[in-house]
Amino acid sequence: MEKTVNHKAWFLVLPVLVLVAFSAVIPLMTVVNYSVQDTFGNNVFFWTGLEWFEQMLKSDRMWNALGRQLVFSAIILAIEVPLGIFVALNMPKRGFWASVCLVLMSLPLLIPWNVVGTIWQIFARVDIGLLGYTLRALGVNYNYTQDFFAAWTTVIVMDVWHWTSLVALLAYAGLQSIPDAYYQAAKIDQASRWAVFRYIELPKMAGVLMIAILLRFMDSFMIYTEPFVVTGGGPGNATTFLSIDLVKMALGQFDLGPAAAFSIMYFLVILVISYVFYTVMTNLDKRDGVA
Amino acid sequence: MSDTTMKPTVSAPGAASIPGDVTAERATANARLKSRFRPTGSAFVMGLYLLFLLLPIYWLLNMSLKTNQEILSTFSLIPLRPTLENYLTILTDPSWYMGYVNSLIYVVMNTVISIMVALPAAYAFSRYQFMGDKHLFFWLLTNRMAPPAVFALPFFQLYSSVGLFDTHIAVALAHCLFNVPLAVWILEGFMRGVPREIDETAYIDGYSFPRFFVKIFMPLIASGIGVAAFFCFMFSWVELLLSRTLTSVDAKPIAATMTRTVSASGLDWGVLAAAGILTIVPGALVIWFVRNYIAKGFALGRV
């Protein structure tokens, strides 16, 4: 669709601009300020240049948190995307049961994040939780508050539980938009189930899957509440992801300078990766026409 | 995805020859024709997946119907002596139920603000080309990507310095950070589907822009507004980090009330579980109405 050029449209965007400037730009400038200054209290600040950035780049703490974060995001993407597609392929295509599935699957997405944490905290406890109790009864030595492996497994299973439906819903929407003629043609050619998936369904889902991966990457990279409630970042620092570490530093210890430098680098990493995804996404949009 | 169901398909050869309710016949014939070519899924796999999703929620429900004593002393799959005591505790104690009231107040404020400012902006993005529009659109999306942890401290200082700390409006404005971009994206997705000829015809008929927008355009995208509102509501409802940082007493959200209980000693699991169940209720109530649009909403209007 051709759009008319009209610079007066800026006036329509103005309210959004003012509001987002107030709630995004001003706070972001505060962060930039802190990242290049130091203080001895009493609101007296002096210029330190890039010292905080150097300090953070040399500290093991940030690199460890970043490493854990990348491993976490990679694992959950590797599980959630294939599983989500698999679930979408198995969903009823229409009728009452399709609606029931949609509603039930959306349920975990709409639960406040700390309640998600609470649910799993209770569910995985060895004394009162169904999962922990069952595992213990089966003779598995499972304790997510002390054991490194158990803590990671719990956090990952929780995230899979929480967000796989998002991938599945998007993939399902992609599947629904495939015209029947494609399937009829495949039937006539006697294509195998795998060929139908590989050459019809997967290419048609590519657009929505990009969105799903983008969203899951962004949100898993910012994850805070759920692991914080379940493990509190422990045992030790085993599940201290970037956001948890940042909040500890900024609000817990009040190390404003390093925390601000940390924030800026954190944001930049997300921004760069997301820009790549966004470019791919808009190119896909163009290729398929407007979705 | 709704358009596939409405699209006329070739009716099955047998359908026309059967007398009686033709439309109903044709509908079932169409459904049969469609499902003949589409690979069908396995109900077993779906059942397993749904079981995995619902089991933890069921466990929470189970716990919320037990007394704390029963939770700690016996292990049972169903409450042996079901009680509503935990819910009564929450609904009669102001420090508990005010949490829900506070959450609802700022969530509603946020939804109203987000939709109001997003409507004209989404219209501009969907209809016009203007200087810097693409960059602006991406910049809006970057706010959706901003980790709340980065913004927690600056928000705290900003709202403290303008005297808004611990007010509902502070949380509502802070949540605009990710909800306004979301609303713009979703609404733009819906507005793209409305033909431009409608705008042009209305202008020729002498409608002014505001009158056209409210009288003609908004009813056309009513479902889009509903979906955008739903998502603003949900994302504001599920967020904890910012709402907890920006409040202490007067506007404390239910989510924060719950974390306080978690860290306290002598934890009452039954009440905690009941509080959790009550936070799921609002989402569960409205989800049926938006079920067909939920993927579109989560995809920021891009499906």
From TrEMBL, chain A:
Locate the ABC transmembrane type-1 domain: which residues?
66-277
Report membrane topology: Multi-pass membrane protein
**SUPFAM superfamilies cross-referenced by the UniProt entry:** MetI-like
- This chain belongs to the protein called ABC transporter permease
| Keywords, alphabetical | Membrane, Transmembrane, Transmembrane helix, Transport
Q: Family, per the entry?
A: Belongs to the binding-protein-dependent transport system permease family.
Record InterPro entries: MetI-like, MetI-like_sf, Sugar_ABC_transporter
Q: Name one GO cellular component term.
A: plasma membrane
Parts of the chain that traverse the membrane: 12-36, 70-89, 96-123, 149-175, 196-218, 259-278
Question: Where does this protein reside within or beyond the cell?
Answer: Cell membrane
Give the domain of life. Answer: Bacteria
Which GO biological process entries does UniProt record here? Answer: transmembrane transport
Species in which this protein is naturally found: Notoacmeibacter marinus
